[in-house]
Write a structure and sequence with these properties.
By secondary structure, the protein is an alpha+beta fold. The chain has 2 helices and 2 strands; from the N terminus they run E-H-E-H.
Length: about 55
């Protein structure tokens, strides 16, 4: 099984996420979910949360 690390920033502004990613030199993919549509789809009730998709 291949593992892919991705982060989804829920309810955070683009400017804040960009600042955080640059400050911490994050090199893995980061997506924005500013209106929490993905969080609702996957029934996120707290963070951090790990989701395994097959």
């Amino acid at each position: 099984m291949n593992t892919v690390t991705k982060v989804i920033a829920v309810f955070l502004s683009c400017a804040f996420v960009k600042f955080f990613v640059e400050k911490n030199r994050i090199t893995y993919p980061v997506a924005l979910d500013t209106n929490a549509k993905a969080a609702m789809l996957y029934k996120v009730v707290g963070v951090p949360l790990n989701v395994v998709l097959e």
